[in-house]
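pls design
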């Protein structure tokens, strides 16, 4: 394992409170019931536009209209709701201290991603950072990991994708990259197991044990 490729939301940070408050605003603005939230959460991990399309087009709503309502919420003013999972900052620092190469492969756009990393000075930990701004096809298409291979000069067997959604794991499988599923994000273990991860970590302590063992 020469390079760990991290997902961001649901893997490194608990973004559920921010995602839920933003979608609650959107549903209210559109006059939709809050019960739609559960359908929306099924697509967390996809690029925003894809999640909106999958959730709202079956309801007869235009994606552009939903996106405008969603962006009408003050996400930036509420980013204090987004916090690292317990133990993640220490784990990242420990891995960095061991010389472990790390990258981020996310469905979040680059500008908000870097802004949200800033409070913990994380940007310098990851090289490269792959967002939807660098690819033409988002998760679960393998393009993001293929670009990571091209930029890092590594083969798929040298990379480990760590993520909390089936979209992360399906992307890894399509790219021929081993994956590690984490259970503190948005999806239950059975949904992740169906995507063929190499291992499952229910919490940060288990994640640390696995990564340190594999990086030795």
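designed seq:
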């Amino acid at each position: 394992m020469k390079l760990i490729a991290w997902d961001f939301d649901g893997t490194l940070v608990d973004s559920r409170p921010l995602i839920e408050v933003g979608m609650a605003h959107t549903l209210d603005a559109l006059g939709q019931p809050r019960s739609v939230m559960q359908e929306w959460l099924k697509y967390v991990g996809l690029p925003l536009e894809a999640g909106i399309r999958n959730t709202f087009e079956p309801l007869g709503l235009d994606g552009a209209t939903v996106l405008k309502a969603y962006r009408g919420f003050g996400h930036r003013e509420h980013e204090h709701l987004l916090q690292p999972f317990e133990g993640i900052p220490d784990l990242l620092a420990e891995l960095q201290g061991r010389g472990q190469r790390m990258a981020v492969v996310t469905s979040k756009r680059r500008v908000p991603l870097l802004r949200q990393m800033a409070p913990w000075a994380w940007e310098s930990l990851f090289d490269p950072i792959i967002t939807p701004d660098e690819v033409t096809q988002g998760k679960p298409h393998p393009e993001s990991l293929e670009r990571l291979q091209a930029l890092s000069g590594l083969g798929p067997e040298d990379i480990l994708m760590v993520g909390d959604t089936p979209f992360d794991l399906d992307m890894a499988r399509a790219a021929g990259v081993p994956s590690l599923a984490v259970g503190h994000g948005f999806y239950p273990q059975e949904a992740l197991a169906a995507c063929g991860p190499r291992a499952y970590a229910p919490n940060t302590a288990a994640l640390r044990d696995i990564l340190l063992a594999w990086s030795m």
